[in-house]
UniProtKB/TrEMBL annotation:
Stretch list, region Disordered: 300-327
Name the UniProt record assigns to this protein: Uncharacterized protein
Basic and acidic residues composition-biased segments: 300-309, 318-327
Length: 327
């Protein structure tokens, strides 16, 4: 079960169905900035069958997945730790699930997975924690391509890909859409989103200032839940933004996309854009030569003509040259 509420404590009401607007911020729109973060997970079930009664521990892993419309899914690993007691977890490797500066899709799929992973190798857990800030851990789909010998990409990828073969604590997903309120569509809007393990939770449900769920004014203790935050911000470092895009491309090449484009076509489009960037960078280098040779000048003109012929870059280049001429 999913419910949501406003960011603002002044506007915050009981947790509402997701087809209603939470606040004056309304919903997201095309070209908005969007950031989705995992604020925390409340674990209230013991799933470790190999521990004696009274030992309320889990070997805990927290993973999320996102996808826009028909694009391939991207996995994020937020947490893994052995022998964890029940309670709140919010000390993640990275709390960001996805962040984009320019929203170009009207549908977003989110999935939160919290599992007890019995039998996971202690050395693997220790190594994951040691490299918890690396792209290979934060984006497990990149682990195969990471140059981290100790990480052991296959065990990490196998663990993430087969997480649902372990003991489930929480595994919930939903589609959010840019749409009108009260049309039975779950709205893509700023606010806090709570996913509950239980399909139906009764009573007056609210969030306190620490983002813990209250049921009729008291702490909710009947099941596990996770709290996500959506807001109109984008604060990814450039490197993380590129990692995010590369992880999507790797997922597409692995056949996880659902678009009508083939993986080869997806890769071709990506490399075509990169090729244009390389040409622009080379043109900048040649134009900056203090004593260019005749061949350098000729190559610069060749590149300039190629780029001017491009339907996207051409108008920008001609506009720049026109401005320089006016000066």
């Amino acid at each position: 079960m999913w419910r949501g509420t406003s960011h603002s404590s002044d506007e915050r009401q009981s947790l509402q169905p997701l087809d209603e607007t939470f606040s004056e911020a309304k919903t997201f729109h095309e070209a908005d900035q969007l950031r989705v973060r995992l604020s925390g997970v409340m674990v209230q079930e013991r799933r470790d069958r190999f521990k004696p009664p009274g030992r309320w521990h889990n070997d805990l892993i927290v993973k999320t997945r996102y996808r826009f419309k028909n694009e391939p899914p991207v996995d994020r690993l937020h947490y893994i730790e052995k022998e964890q007691r029940l309670g709140w977890r919010g000390d993640f490797f990275d709390d960001v699930i996805v962040s984009v500066p320019d929203l170009q899709n009207d549908r977003l799929h989110l999935r939160v997975q919290v599992y007890d992973v019995d039998g996971v190798n202690t050395d693997l857990v220790d190594t994951i924690q040691k490299f918890s800030e690396s792209s290979a851990v934060l984006f497990p789909q990149l682990a195969t391509y990471a140059n981290i010998a100790r990480l052991g990409s296959k065990p990490l990828v196998d663990l993430v890909n087969n997480i649902d073969q372990h003991d489930e604590i929480l595994d919930e997903e939903l589609w959010l859409e840019i749409n009108q309120p009260q049309t039975r569509h779950k709205l893509l809007q700023p606010g806090y989103f709570v996913c509950f393990r239980d399909e139906s939770v009764s009573g007056d449900l609210t969030l306190d200032d620490d983002l813990r769920v209250l049921q009729d004014g008291d702490a909710y203790t009947d099941g596990s839940y996770a709290v996500l935050e959506l807001d109109k911000n984008h604060e990814l470092q450039p490197k993380r933004e590129i990692d995010q895009k590369v992880a999507k491309m790797v997922a597409e090449l692995a056949g996880k996309g659902r678009s009508s484009e083939s993986a080869l076509h997806f890769l071709r489009e990506t490399l075509e854009a990169y090729s244009k960037y390389e040409k622009l960078e080379r043109l900048r280098e040649l134009d900056g030569e203090p004593h260019p040779s005749a061949r350098c000048n000729a190559r610069a003109e060749e590149l300039r003509d190629e780029l001017k012929a491009d339907p996207v870059l051409g108008p920008a280049l001609r506009m720049k040259e026109s401005g320089q001429a006016d000066d």
